[in-house]
């Protein structure tokens, strides 16, 4: 099973790129983030025509997450996270595909620092950690896939100095991510590239793509049972270089 996380940065604007990716790579499961689409305007017909069933949790204009499955309809398990009833952001969707529990995650960016957006980011990480702990207790293959908006290590960024004041690299952001992983999750891409230097995001500004000035914020965390089945993991980097591409590249893990 090849499971992909892909922040599409607007599903309507990037639909040709997404359909191209599905046709060329035929992944089994795709977790999408930043749909920027309401539930009503999600392009279900086009995705189904490409051979994929879908569940989605939309929000007009920003956020939004989805889970696609090739030749199957994902079974939704949960949308949103407990702990903050007034939180209306569409950032978490959990589904089951072929016996594997898969969550699509769009963790808050948190800028500017300090401020209420950063405080919200840290609270959201705590709420995700609570859900992750409950999922581990199920003792099943689970994949937490998404745009975490956290650069975990110094070797996950082209320039530590350039990102030093950003919410993605603050000590509190990193500590939250590390505490989550320390529950017993395996960072799939890190197992394949233990020395880092692999990016999943390149900004549209300042020629970041042309300079390869990127960083790693798209992660796939595996429960112990899923981690036992890992075969490979990687980034489909070349899709970032295509015309009108997302600023993220599809990032994947393959399980037995």
From TrEMBL:
The record marks 248 as: Interaction with DNA substrate. Its cofactor is Mg(2+); Mn(2+). Probably binds two magnesium or manganese ions per subunit. Its EC number is 3.1.11.2. GO terms for biological process: DNA repair. Pfam families: Exo_endo_phos. Residues 4-248 form the Endonuclease/exonuclease/phosphatase domain. The record marks 218 as: Important for catalytic activity. It comes from the Bacteria. The keyword Manganese applies. This is Exodeoxyribonuclease III. It comes from Sphingomonas desiccabilis. The gene is xth.
């Amino acid at each position: 099973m090849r499971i992909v996380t892909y922040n599409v940065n607007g599903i309507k604007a990037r639909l040709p790129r997404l359909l191209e990716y599905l046709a060329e790579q035929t992944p089994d499961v795709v977790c999408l983030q930043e749909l920027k689409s309401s539930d009503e305007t999600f392009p279900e017909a086009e995705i189904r025509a490409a051979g994929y069933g879908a569940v989605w949790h939309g929000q007009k204009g920003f956020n939004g997450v989805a889970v696609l499955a090739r030749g199957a309809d994902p079974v939704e398990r949960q949308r949103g996270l407990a702990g903050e009833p007034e939180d209306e952001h569409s950032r978490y969707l959990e589904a089951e595909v072929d016996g594997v529990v898969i969550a699509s995650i769009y963790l808050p960016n948190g800028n500017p620092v300090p401020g209420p957006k950063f405080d919200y980011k840290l609270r959201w990480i705590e709420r995700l950690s609570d859900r992750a702990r409950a999922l581990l207790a199920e003792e099943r293959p689970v994949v937490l896939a998404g745009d975490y908006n956290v650069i975990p290590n110094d070797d996950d960024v082209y320039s530590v100095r350039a990102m030093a004041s950003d919410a993605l690299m603050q000590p509190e952001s990193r500590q939250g991510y590390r505490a989550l992983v320390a529950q017993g999750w395996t960072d799939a891409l890190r197992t394949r590239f233990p020395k880092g230097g692999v990016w999943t995001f390149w900004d549209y500004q300042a020629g970041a793509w042309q300079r390869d000035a990127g960083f790693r914020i798209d992660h796939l965390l595996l429960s112990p049972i899923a981690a036992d089945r890992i075969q490979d993991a990687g980034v489909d980097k070349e899709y970032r270089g295509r015309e009108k591409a997302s600023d993220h590249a599809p990032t994947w893990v393959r399980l037995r």
